[in-house]
Amino acid sequence: MILDQIIGFFSSDMSIDLGTANTLVLVKGRGIIINEPSVVAIQSDKTGKQRILAVGQEAKNMLGKTPGSIQAIRPMKDGVIADFDMTEKMIRYFIEKAHKRKSFLRPRIIICVPYGLTQVERKAVRESAMSAGAREVFLIEEPMAAAIGADLPVREPKGSLVIDIGGGTTEIGVVSLGGLVISKSIRTAGDKIDMAIVDYVKKKYNLLIGERAGEEIKIEIGSAIALEEPLSAIVKGRDQVSGLLSRIELSSEDVRDATKEPIKEIADALKDVLEIMPPDLAGDIVENGIVLTGGGALIRGFDKYLSDLVKLPVFVAEEPLLAVAKGTGRALEEIELLQHLANE
Ligand SMILES: Nc1ncnc2c1ncn2[C@@H]1O[C@H](COP(=O)(O)OP(=O)(O)OP(=O)(O)O)[C@@H](O)[C@H]1O
Ligand SMILES: [Mg+2]
Questions:
Q1: In DSSP terms, which residues pair with 237 in a beta bridge?
Q2: Cα of 47 to ligand 2 centre, how many Å?
């Protein structure tokens, strides 16, 4: 035990929020040192051999803009590992970048994975980290990390409800006494909202735009409720009828209309969780409300939209994009919690 503590003191233990949209790495004592999109760009040579060109932001900038021999991929799309090999390479890249001979001891690593990952996927994540040089690997589930990161009283005998709206998945969890009492994960989150904008613009304006443009529009003017002062943004793409490149102006009302389906799916998942809530925990939620984390929590008025619907107070966590990474990092500080996680 004492030896463990001494080793822990010298090694640069780290935690990773392995998200489908963004990966964040936090090193003990140094804070979040990597915050980059979960994207890998690869180039194939004539023999079909693949070489990594870029990972992270640089690779994301290539999405949808690559020539034939280069591919920019999101290996963890939709909350599942779509490409095991690339996920492994990405995890290894981020670990090596964070570790960089800062310490000669191999780090202990705690990784936050989407709740819905299968045993096979979890094993793949664990093995990737081990082969990238980890001494020990622990996994923590996303609703738990989100609740810790949002400063909810997770250890107390009191129910806390957190909704993490990420890129690939929305995860809803009720936490009490350090464990997940209820949880639900759906594959509707930021990516589906982006796609809904792409589809709407195509249908209503005959304009073909890319997923990245859809995401930019969502961030610029997306909202879950009618805004007092409507916003607008220009979107560029290719006209389906004339084939010419053109631009149109979209209003926040357009975008609200476009995204109401996926937004409603998230609300319905919350209602499902509330319906199966044990009465004693329900009392805690009525008293303390619901906390939103993940990038999707930044959609304008999402908190008010949900609050009006379920008649409970809803709050957005401070820095919702960082909540899971901070929660995973805090779990790293608490050895006894880690030991509890190791057996899962
Ligand atoms: N200001 C913003 N307004 C609306 N959406 C935003 C904003 N900033 C980021 N997002 C969205 O948040 C999503 C990414 O959030 P986050 O980093 O929490 O996901 P993730 O953890 O990678 O995914 P997951 O938890 O599903 O594995 C993306 O869909 C992105 O478009
Ligand atoms: Mg996440």
A1: 246
A2: 37
Q: At what angle do helices 119-131 and 84-99 cross, to 10 degrees?
A: 40
Ligand 2 center to 100 CA (angstroms)? 25
Out of 3.90.1150.10, 3.30.420.40, 3.40.50.300, 3.40.50.280, the CATH code matching 152-316 is 3.30.420.40
Q: Is 128 in the pocket of ligand 1 (CB under 6 A)?
A: no
Ligand 1 near 167 CB (within 6 A): yes
Indicate whether residue 215 lines ligand 1 (CB < 6 A): yes
Model pTM score = 0.93
Where do the domains of the chain lie?
2-38+77-145+323-342, 40-73, 152-316
Low pLDDT (below 70) residues in the chain: 1-11, 101-104, 335-344
**The pLDDT of residue 78:** 79
Question: Which CATH architecture does the domain made up of 2-38+77-145+323-342 adopt?
Answer: 2-Layer Sandwich (3.30)
Residue 299 beta carbon below 6 angstroms from any ligand 1 atom: yes
Task: Count CB atoms within 10 A of the CB of residue 131.
Answer: 12
Using an 8 Å Cβ cutoff, are 167 and 191 in contact? yes
